[in-house]
């Protein structure tokens, strides 16, 4: 019996550990990461479908999506879906808009076909890049935690697998991946991190920097989960229909109190993506630096003030 190439085995093992019961869909762009993921999922899984998203941002994108779908059908995936999205009018830059449209489309397809999970092809290298981008933005622990292995229906089996292994797996299996020109376009921040910043760190500090960054993200994510549990319990105690009782919040550590405020702001209707450190700091100042100042404004036109020992929402 021929020996399975190490890269193919590594990808298959990672997928096998992550597969839930029931139908799973692989989100496949045709790039090396998602192509290796798809091949591994088809090998180890029982009920595996494939979905490819056409963002319409590049010439020939529709044909490429059709080609990926044709490969999927020939390889035995079922169902195979092509999701065409329109990114115009979505908030953020091109990357953010495409991501928003893509995740919405994947969620819709999964719901329609009854999939238990959607597998995403993000690798250890993607995780390291995410951490560096978060550091550059001055992100807090939530940003530095990187991408979760699981969130809702989305599963990332390859976060402990290097990008080099997905390329080697494709080569060993005779799969020819598509090279997305956006991945090397310096107009995009992630492409600059991938092509310049991370290689510079590897040259200066050694190749272990990639796995170390990714491992740090996992450690921070575990700490975040513990702190979020404490914050949820504190919010349950302090929150009421009248508002947020600040009497006990004084005694909490900053890490937990700000999580309480972040979660409470989301309960009021502030969109998580627009809720920044600045907004939470303004709420925190109503508790810890009260000088009779005016109300704090949150995304979505939400206005909060301090009144008789409570933080309350008021009309704008």
What does this structure look like?
- It is found in: Cytoplasm.
- Helix content is 52%, strand content 13%.
- It is α/β, with parallel strands linked by helices and 316 residues long.
- It has two domains: 6-213, HUPs (Rossmann fold, 3-Layer(aba) Sandwich); 241-314, Uridine Diphospho-n-acetylenolpyruvylglucosamine Reductase, domain 3 (2-Layer Sandwich), CATH 3.30.465.
- Strands 3-2-1-4-6-5 form a six-stranded mixed beta sheet, with helices on both faces. Strands 7-8-11-10-9 form a five-stranded antiparallel beta sheet.
- Helix 3 (61-74) links the parallel strand 2 and strand 3.
- The longest helix has 31 residues, at 208-238.
Quickly list its features.
316 residues, six-stranded mixed beta sheet, 11 helices, 11 strands, 52% helix, elongated, EC 6.3.4.19
